[in-house]
Amino acid sequence: MLVILGKILVFLGAFFDGLYLSILFHELGHGIAAVLVTRQKVVSKVGTSKDSPGFSLGRLRIELGLKGFQYGFTYYERDRESRFRQILVALGGPLASIIIALLCAWWVLDTTLGGWLWVIGFACFVANIRILLVSLWPIKYRPFPDKDEVWLSDTLDIWRMLIGRNPEPEDRT
To answer: What is the pLDDT of residues 83-113, one digit of tens each?
Structure first.
């Protein structure tokens, strides 16, 4: 009984850590794509807090916040870039999530079913799949309930760019 309880607690801890890391890797996918296809400075951020500690790697700044950690975004001046480049940047996040999901799946398949490492790997896999599904589901959402700001999922953002509709001024990805 204690082993099962321990594995449940480990799963929950790994899930929430995995969720944070999945958002970070997803946003790094956008950020690295933006650095590669633009000549701009790029900020990839996890969390919604205004003042988050961070560090820079060349033109890429990474900021890590705890408040609102279930959200992340990558910022660059989109208006300066072609739609093709914007689509490439938007595809970077889901591509990174797919890569991490495959790595977690390999980890899960390579460990003993139900073992401690399997529980950790499975939790990280589930967390990453959650991030991937949210980014692929064409939705608008409000990360700040008290503000009118609306963010678009990656798929909805790409869809709007493909059909030629610019995001509304309050929309942000």
So the answer is: 999 999 999 999 999 999 999 999 999 999 9
CA angle, residues 119, 10, 29, in degrees to nearest 5: 70
Burial class for 14, CB neighbours closer than 10 Å (0-12, 13-18, 19+): buried
Sequence-distant (≥ 6) Cβ neighbours of residue 53 within 8 angstroms: 63, 64, 65
C-alpha span between 41 and 33 (Å, rounded): 12
Element holding 151 (H helix, E strand): strand 150-152
Closest CA to 116 of 41, 22, 14: 14
Task: Quickly state the pLDDT bin for 31 (edges 50, 70, 90).
Answer: very high
Q: Please report which helix (H) or strand (E) contains residue 150, including its range.
A: strand 150-152
Higher pLDDT, 167 or 136: 136
Residue 24: burial class (beta carbons within 10 Å; 0-12, 13-18, 19+): buried
Give the model's pLDDT for residue 56: 94
Angle, alpha carbons 76-136-147 (nearest 5°): 55
